[in-house]
Every structure is written in C-alpha cells, then in structure tokens.
UniProtKB/TrEMBL annotation:
InterPro entries: Glyco_trans_2-like, Nucleotide-diphossugar_trans, TPR-like_helical_dom_sf. CDD domains: Beta4Glucosyltransferase. It comes from the Bacteria. Residues 6-117 form the Glycosyltransferase 2-like domain. Pfam families: Glycos_transf_2. It comes from Paenibacillus vini. This is Beta 1,4 glucosyltransferase. Transmembrane segments: none annotated. PANTHER family: GLYCOSYLTRANSFERASE, POLY-BETA-1,6-N-ACETYL-D-GLUCOSAMINE SYNTHASE.
Length: 364
C-alpha cells in the first residue's frame, strides 16, 4: 500500500515566497495544510490557490505550539513540513516522489539535508540535517518556543534528498525579542535555550553577553555534544570580533574536550599559526583538517569550505612559503577539484607552473 503525504506549514506574511515553495511540492502532496499566524498581506489568498485547508492560529511567541497545531490537523499517513522560503529543486522533487513510491510503512522518520547557503559557483557552503518526514500516527511533537526541534524515535532513513532555503527577507530581531521577553518574565531557560539565546546575542553583535551565555551553557554540562562544539566555535568568533586572539585560541582548544579535533577547529588553528609565521605547525593543522571527512552525518550547521577546498588552498600558501612548490601545486589542484573557476586557484596554477620551471612570480 502506497503511503500518503500531508504537507504542514506555518506562515506569516509570506506572499513573496509561498507560491514558489508550494509549486515545488504540490504535485507530490496528498494534502496541504497552511496555518497562518497573523499575516497582513496576500499570504492566505495565495495559500487558497493550492488548498482549502487554510487555518488561523493566534501567535503566542511559540513556534513549537504553532507547528504542533498544524501537525494535529494532518490526516495522511506521513507528515512533511517546510517553511515558506524553502523549495525542493527539480532533482529533489524526483527523489521525494521516488521515496514516496518506495517508502515502507514501518519507517517512522526520514531525515533530509537542509541547504542554507551557496557560493558564487552554486556550491553548497552551509548545510545541516533535519527530520523532515514523519509518521503521523506516532504523534511526534515539536519542542522549543524558538529554534524548535522535532522529537522523534523509531526506525529512520537518512536520505540524500535536500530541501533548499531561498530566503528573500528575514525578521532579524524576532527571535531575540522572544528570548528577551521570556527572560524578562523570569522563565528558566533549558541548556538548549541558553545556547540559542547566546547565538542570537552573537548575531546581534552583543559579544560580551553572548560569551557569558556560551560559558553558562558549556558549564551546565547538559548540552548536546554537537551544540557544545558549536558553542566553542561561536565563542571563538566573539573573541575574534573583540580582537582577543589568545581568548579566541582558548575557545578553539576547548572544543577538544568534546572529541577529536574537527575540520573547522583545525582550520582555525592553522590560520592562527599561519598568522604567527609558524608555518610547520600551520601545515600540521591544515593537514589534520583534510582528514576530517565525517561531515555528511552531522546534524548541525556546517561550513562546507573547511571540509573541502579551504584547507588545501591554505596548504598551498604554506608550502609555497617554505619553498615546497610541488606540494603547493598538489594542494592547489586538490582545491581546484571543488572550485575549478576560483580566480585565486587559477592564478596559483600559473604562478606555481612558473616556479616549478624556475621562473620568478609572486603568489596570490
């Protein structure tokens, strides 16, 4: 028996993106449920072109409550969720239809990649993994007023289907205001709330407060290990913004407490030693970065550059500075495999060819 899909969405003032989102998935869905949390534009009018299931939900500064309401309205065997500024590109539409036709009814949840940012060549630069399709009868619940997550269990598939984020605008103060209001009311924040509150503070350049809450989160000893890694990196960012290189280094090294060095921290260390003209140590850490290949299994936001071309390009620079042009060329070509049209890589290719032939040049 074929499974059926309900699309569940919460929206507010999404007239610029909603039709694009729904066009990308409407033919795959058996039911589309749109819950509006207070639009003042044409959002609901656009939604009704695709479905009669358009509902209102009074906004109470709680994303999980709104999403749980939408899930409660679904009637099909599986629930698929999107935000209005998400789309499925054509290859992923095909993959989702193939999944629908092949999905066994004993599967409880399907995770998918979430592509958040792209470089000038169209390569994904930032992504994470999220539970995106869940069995309705399990009554899975969303948790968290802000930066909510879907709590799931059971038999899972981790698919290569990607949801692509194509935002045209962003309410940059919304989440921070929700957290500040909750704090003013005297609410007790969970470790996860503390972590995401710190992220909002950092994103709004309130670095001192952000550092305070990152420390509070890490000191709790109750955070998810992936968030602990992230907190160390973001705290290092705060110290970098403050120009405190030594504290930045301490924050990077603190990440080692949670497991083996990851590529993003190895690249940070490589850059630290490169800046301080300690080229051999810089080479060591950039080389370590190239050995971290476990990126696709991670559920947190990841910078794809540090797992692909960046450490190789930096190794090219380091080896050039110590006069090892063969290895400089080797790593430049490794970087080129990911960014073949990057002008820096093209320049280095010409420069290193001259160096290896004995001609004088200056590296980029």
């Amino acid at each position: 028996m074929l499974v059926t899909f309900s699309l569940c969405m919460i929206v507010k003032n999404e007239e610029d993106t909603l039709d694009r989102c729904l066009d990308s998935v409407a033919e795959i869905m058996d039911e589309i449920i749109i819950v509006d949390t207070g639009s003042t534009d044409r959002t609901k009018e656009i939604a009704r072109r695709y479905t009669d299931c358009v509902y209102d939900f009074e906004w109470i500064e709680d994303f999980a409550a709104a999403r749980n309401y939408t899930f409660g309205l679904a009637t099909q065997s599986y629930i698929f969720w999107l935000d209005a500024d998400d789309v499925l590109e054509e290859p992923d539409q095909i993959k989702l239809m193939e999944l629908k036709n092949a999905l066994e009814p004993d599967i409880d949840t399907v995770s998918m990649e979430y592509h958040l940012a792209f470089d000038e060549f169209g390569n994904v630069t930032s992504k994470l993994r999220r539970n995106r399709l869940v069995k309705r009868e399990n009554h899975f619940r969303w948790i968290g007023a802000v930066h909510e997550y879907l709590e799931v269990y059971g038999k899972a598939i981790h698919s290569d289907i990607a949801v692509t984020h194509r935002s045209v605008r962003h309410d940059s103060d919304r989440n921070l205001k929700i957290y500040e209001n909750r704090l003013e009311k005297g609410e007790t924040f969970s470790p996860r709330d503390i972590f995401y509150f710190a992220n909002e503070l950092k994103d709004h350049s309130q670095t001192e407060r952000a550092i305070h809450y990152y420390e509070k989160f890490l000191d709790s000893g109750q955070g998810w290990v992936e968030d602990c890694y992230s907190a160390c990196g973001r705290m290092a960012d705060c110290y970098h913004m403050q120009g405190d290189q030594e504290k930045e280094l301490e924050a990077v090294l603190r990440s080692f407490h949670y497991g083996k060095p990851r590529a993003e921290f190895c690249c940070r260390l490589g850059f630290y030693f490169l800046q301080n003209q300690n080229l051999e140590t810089a080479i060591y850490w950039y080389t370590q970065a190239t050995c971290d290949t476990d990126i696709n299994s991670r559920w947190v936001l990841s910078n794809q550059a540090v797992y692909t071309w960046l450490p190789h390009l930096q190794l090219c620079v380091c080896y050039d500075r110590i006069g090892n042009y063969e290895l400089a060329q080797f790593h430049n070509e490794k970087a080129a495999a990911f960014r073949p049209e990057d002008p820096r890589i093209l320049y280095n290719r010409t420069y290193l060819a001259k160096r290896l032939s004995g001609e004088e040049a200056q590296i980029n």
